[in-house]
Amino acid sequence: MPKDPSTSSGQDFLPKESLGLPKDPEEISPPQASSLNEQRHEVKTILSWSAPGRPFKKKSRQYFLTAILIALFVEIILFLFSQYILMMVVVSLVFVAFALSIVPPHNFNYRISTEGITVEDHFFLWQELYDFYFKKREGIEVLHIRTKAMIPGELTITLGEINKEHVKQALLPYLPYRELVRPTFMEKSGDWLSRNFPLEKT
Asked: Helix, strand, or coil here: 155?
């Protein structure tokens, strides 16, 4: 005899599995989220190059002779006023200036990435940097990047053979570009001395 539907329990009409319910959250693996995190934390090199650690220009013989004559003149004045300590300071400054003019700098490796800037074995995060600008020193284009901390205060990076516009486009998404930088008192004084009392003919 066929089974009376009225006598059957309600469980016969329920689905054996809850097909409409989601699985346990622990069993769900989010492959899309993990791939997005990997892409977000992936470090990419934007630009890298090698250039001398500081601007260097070979000096002529006239430069050294003029510097020695000026140093001797200053030494005589300091000797007349018995400023022996200042005499030693002048000799030290002349020695350092001659050493920097004779010994060429070795090449540094520079790298701009999505996380920051690497100068040799020193790394600076974008959060540690403030802005950047360009200046010419010794006829060579130099990149200046100011830091938020007092030390080092500013990074000076020579561009070498790399194009200035390439470096500018690589830095603009991360740092503001300062188009005009007012020279300091020391820079103005140095420019005035170099114009009126040049150590060598250009």
From this structure: strand
